[in-house]
Amino acid sequence: MVNVTFQIQMSEEFAVGSMIILVFIFAVGLCGNAIICCYKIKDGRKMKVQDILVFNLAFSDASYVTSSFIGLFQIFFRVYLNQLPIYKSNTLLCRLNICIPFYFGVVNVFSMALLAIVRYLAINKPRTFLSLSRKSYSLVIFCLINWLVPALLAFPQAFRLWGGVTYISDVGFCYTIYHYSQGLNIIIFFTTVIVGVIVVPLTIIFLCYWKIYQEVRRNRSRIAYYDNRPNVILPATHDKNRSLRVRARSNSIKSFSRKREIYVATTLFIILLTFTLSYIPYSIIAIIAFFRISPYQIRVHLILLFVTYLGNIANPIIFIIRNNDIRKWLKRLFPSCSLFQLYSTTSIADIATQDRRV
Predict the structure, then answer these.
(1) Sorting pLDDT into bands at 50, 70 and 90, what band is 144?
(2) Are 130 and 221 spatial neighbours (Cβ–Cβ below 8 Å)?
(3) Order of strands, edge to edge, in the sheet holding 173-175?
(4) What number of helices (H) and strands (E) belong to the chain?
(5) Which helix (H) or strand (E) element contains residue 173?
(6) Which range of residues forms the domain containing residue 130?
(7) What CATH number is associated with residue 175?
(8) Which of 60, 180, 197, 304 has the most CB atoms lying inside 10 A of its own CB?
(9) How many domains does the chain have?
(10) Rounded Cα–Cα distance for residues 203 and 211 (Å)
């Protein structure tokens, strides 16, 4: 990596505004995702594959906002106090200060992709999903992908094994913004990050939900047929009638199960839209800065980094609003809080109505 430094020209007002935003993101993001994590782990060994991946998403969200708050708040606070430079050079501590949040951000993106894959298997390939969920090693593979692969992108930067971070000299901190003038190593690394962290996961997510949408359209009429006959009880006068009754009940159960998967998939699709709206602007400005960088573009890049946190604070809110079981659990914990009673009318039993509204 060529030793190139840039300046951000950060004002005191910019630093104060950034601190206020960070405090809000940290408070809301940590509390919301902590609720999701606690709700998922309360069942212990009863957690299913998709439950563990939702826990991973919430945990990575919470870790991302927490590590970012710890790393970035001190930067803005030191700018406000005019105690600069924060780090006198591009040291290991300086690099870790930004590489750790970068790591949890990549984990977060991979969690979204794995959730989409699991939801696709649950709806489109139920037999494959059932087979995988019964095998313990499948969960190990999911966790390894979710946590180890992002480490291969994040931590080699900190130890200068591959890639690197940019030192902002006027403030004295390291930041994950890159320019082609930093050398071939950075060009290869930046291309890998854009393709491996943004393009490939987003493509996988969109393909999975497109396949889910197609499956829903193919089966909507069949689901509606059984929805209108949830309690079919045929006279059990002989074996044939008993067979028909069992078959009708089985089809009704399958219909309910599929509706439940579709409802969950819809929730995750809403989260996907939030994720896309929060990450795409950040990726675009990163690509622009890669070819033409200036103090203004670095500040815009930093502002859009805050935008990426919107997904981290919105994810738990979406889960809570669209999951009646979580709201009931919260009402038991906080019976005097009226906030959770505002959405107490939704339940899995009303999924058909929910799907028509969504």
Answers:
(1) confident
(2) no
(3) 5-6, 166-168, 173-175
(4) 11, 3
(5) strand 173-175
(6) 5-357
(7) 1.20.1070.10
(8) 60
(9) 1
(10) 12
